[in-house]
Design goal:
Blueprint lengths: L1 H17 L8 E2 L2 E2 L4 H8 L7 E4 L5 E7 L13 E9 L2 E9 L1 H4 L4 H12 L9 E5 L3 E11 L3 E7 L6 E7 H48 L6
Antiparallel strand pairs: 1-2, 3-4, 4-5, 5-6, 6-10, 7-8, 8-9, 9-10
Helix pairs in contact: 1-4
């Protein structure tokens, strides 16, 4: 009975902490898809300059990692989120990867988590894909448990295979596709230009070495005594 009461207490915390009016799938808590990078950074108390540049051409793709405050104990900290990775397409938020704290979701089942999110977003559906990619510090594959989608957004409840735990992925379906194509094109351009870049880097290194040698020659030649 105590365990069951604990489960529903955590579910209530999950729901109340995330509660937003309506069932807008583009929103997760105080964040929403389309937010500018500086606004997200300000919201989480991180400098915009800390965003990691993934690619700058043909479009600008950036990521910002936010780890929630870990100073409070699990008993006094109502926030169930451990960390969120925000991804931006040309400065606009297009994806959020949310990882929940395992201590605050311990004992919860797939059904429990689905019910908690359903109180916010309405009834979910069975995902078409059984697995999804998840990047929260490292790339991994996660179980797709339940999804909520409309014409513009997709929200997926996922389960981590390694070590257990749960997460949520909120993404703009159109901008996510554009970002993936942009990253693929950036990687293709890097491969095509790699040979010439290597030659240019080598030529630069040779020129810098010659400049250093000439400066040393001008200093050492007048005072050299055989």
């Amino acid at each position: 009975m105590n365990l069951r009461q604990g489960v529903f207490t955590i579910l209530a915390v999950l729901a109340s902490a995330s509660l937003l009016p309506g069932s807008d799938l583009s929103r997760y808590r105080e964040f929403h898809l389309g937010m500018p990078l500086p606004e997200v950074a300000k919201q989480v108390g991180i400098a915009s300059s800390e965003a990691k540049l993934i690619s700058s051409r043909p479009e600008r793709i950036e990521e910002l990692d936010w780890r929630t405050n870990r100073s409070a104990s699990a008993a006094t900290r109502p926030d169930s989120v451990r960390e969120i990775r925000f991804s931006f397409y040309n400065g606009s938020l297009f994806e959020m990867m949310v990882a929940y704290d395992k201590d605050q979701t311990g004992g919860l089942t797939d059904k429990d988590m689905t019910e908690a999110l359903s109180t916010i977003y309405g009834p979910g559906s069975t995902p078409v894909a059984k697995e999804m990619a998840f990047n929260s510090g490292y790339n991994t594959t996660v179980r797709a448990i339940t999804q909520w989608n409309d014409s513009q957004s997709l929200l997926s409840l996922v389960g981590f295979s390694y070590g257990g735990g749960f997460g949520v992925i909120v993404s703009s379906t159109s901008n996510q596709a554009l970002a993936r194509r942009a990253i693929a094109e950036s990687e293709r351009l890097d491969r095509v230009e790699a040979p010439q870049k290597a030659l240019d880097d080598r030529a630069k290194q040779v020129a810098e070495a010659e400049t250093r040698d000439e400066k040393s020659r001008l200093v050492n030649k007048p005072g050299f005594r055989p």
